[in-house]
Amino acid sequence: MAQYSKVAPTPLLKDELDIVIPTIRNLDFLEMWRPFFQQYHLIIVQDGDPSKVIKVPEGFDYELYNRNDINRILGPKASCISFKDSACRCFGYMVSKKKYIFTIDDDCFVAKDPSGKDINALEQHIKNLLSPSTPFFFNTLYDPYREGADFVRGYPFSLREGIPTAVSHGLWLNIPDYDAPTQLVKPLERNTRFVDAVLTIPKGTLFPMCGMNLAFNRELIGPAMYFGLMGDGQPIGRYDDMWAGWCMKVICDHLGLGVKTGLPYIWHSKASNPFVNLKKEYKGIYWQEELIPFFQSATLPKDCTTVQGCYLELSKQVKAKLGKVDEYFVKLADAMVTWVEAWDELNPVEGKAVEANKVVAK
């Protein structure tokens, strides 16, 4: 039998998980999520004008940070937190004291499964994070730890124990997560296809991580979940989550940690303006043809045994190799270092990170 059948019913992790929400508006969308979110602690990161009052529905346990708070808490190191971009959410990751993070955008609503039942996205993310990953050998029945599934014939027994899952990447119904050129040529396209599956992304394979429906084990991978320098004052936007995903995946592959994608779905309600998006993305669309080969070939030395150590090494490679593409990447590499320094200041115990148990495919 698969490992998952031996696992006790998934705990709610009520005291071990924070929900991080970046926003510029009142959080009325929380009413729909109340049955699923109300027992958890929320960290709200307010972007834009810090004098604007953000209203949160009654009955939620939350803390709210605006730009003034970020500047006060981080001082000069606040320069690493983006402004006027959803990348500001990663400040919430830094100030959290919980083991797990779930982050969601304020235009994401509760989706329904094909039977019409509301999907508890958070519960599915928790299931993903608490079951192992299998990046070293692909299982054709997808997640072998799910009830009713197992490892198929020919799957090496030495790899069936799996490795810890660091990241759970959820998907979206309705408005797809498209770049601006695709939005422009497919303005009416909607994702109506519900695929009832979770799979581990193989080792050595990158993917475009979306931050609107995402959960991760903060203790395992938190310092790598930096959403970069985007938005106000920067030449690029809308690449924040993807940048974090590429860095994170390289480090997970090195440290023997897993990444899952698929369930849960949320309902993405609002399509952003493709012309505004194109202005934010156009340099990224050009640069990504250099970025992807860089991350595909990036390797980390064996003496990098902590997430922080891996991330600082990666920042050196970003500066040395991508700095030739554009001066922006020199600035970004410096911000990556500032981010780790700020993380360790706010998380001094985690700053002395315990070495990850590296798992090597046999």
From TrEMBL:
Keyword Cell division: no
Sugar attachment sites: 153
Gene Ontology terms, MF aspect: UDP-arabinopyranose mutase activity
E.C. numbers: 5.4.99.30
Gene Ontology cellular-component terms listed: cytosol; Golgi apparatus
Annotated site (Required for activity): 153, 160
Keyword Transport in record: no
Protein role: Probable UDP-L-arabinose mutase involved in the biosynthesis of cell wall non-cellulosic polysaccharides.
Family to which this protein belongs: Belongs to the RGP family.
Identification of the protein by name: UDP-arabinopyranose mutase
The species this protein was found in: Pyrus ussuriensis x Pyrus communis
